[in-house]
Amino acid sequence: MKLSAFHFVPGQYVDIRATTMGKGFQGVMRRWNFSGGTASHGNSLAHRIPGSTGQHQDPGRVWPGKKMPGRMGGKWRTMPNLYVIRVDTHLNLIFVKGNVPGPDDGRTPVYITDAKKKLQSEAIRLQLKSGGQGDWVTLDASGKPLPPGKNNPQQAQVTVPNIGLGRGIVGLPFPAGSVAMAKRYAPILVAPSTRVTSPWVGGDGA
After folding, report:
1. What is residue 199's three-state secondary structure?
2. How many CA atoms lie within 13 A of 120 on its CB side?
3. How many CA atoms lie within 13 A of 117 on its CB side?
4. 124: part of which helix (H) or strand (E)?
5. Could you list the pLDDT tens digit for every one of the 206 residues in the chain?
6. Whole-model pTM?
């Protein structure tokens, strides 16, 4: 079975892990954002030095983990909770909102997984919204969870398992989105915008 980008759906959050761009050997001002020395009269070749790194006679050594010049970048980093704004099943691309670690060279592997922290927070939120009763959550017509025992004539009879999945990932294909499954949908899937509308802009966007 050939996998497709359709496994991820627009509107969900993902964690992206990759190797950051290597910067080589850098000083403390670039590596650790030190302010550096003064630029006034009398400063002799001490504009970008780290300053004092040692202690007194006791302990008489430099503590481990001291911020000093060294190799910068080239480490594994995870960017959590990136919003998936678009999925292109034709080109097999996933568009996310946020920073993705690693160089844009097409050779560095990028690993995408469902957002772990976001799923945990969604599980707690749904559990609180449901009153902590049972394993099922009732949704209204707009998709928001309703507390148990609330009689609403406009309530939609839709129930989903309370397994910690947000509304954007309820229809996530399991175990994985295949190419055959992606052909049944549009080639480009777009998530609704999360940008906050300015109160000074009219409803028609003028």
Report:
1. coil
2. 4
3. 7
4. helix 116-129
5. 677 888 888 888 899 999 999 999 999 999 999 999 988 888 888 999 999 888 888 888 999 999 999 999 999 999 999 998 888 888 889 999 999 999 988 888 999 988 888 876 666 666 555 554 444 455 555 556 566 554 544 444 444 444 444 444 444 444 467 777 788 778 888 887 766 555 565 555 44
6. 0.64
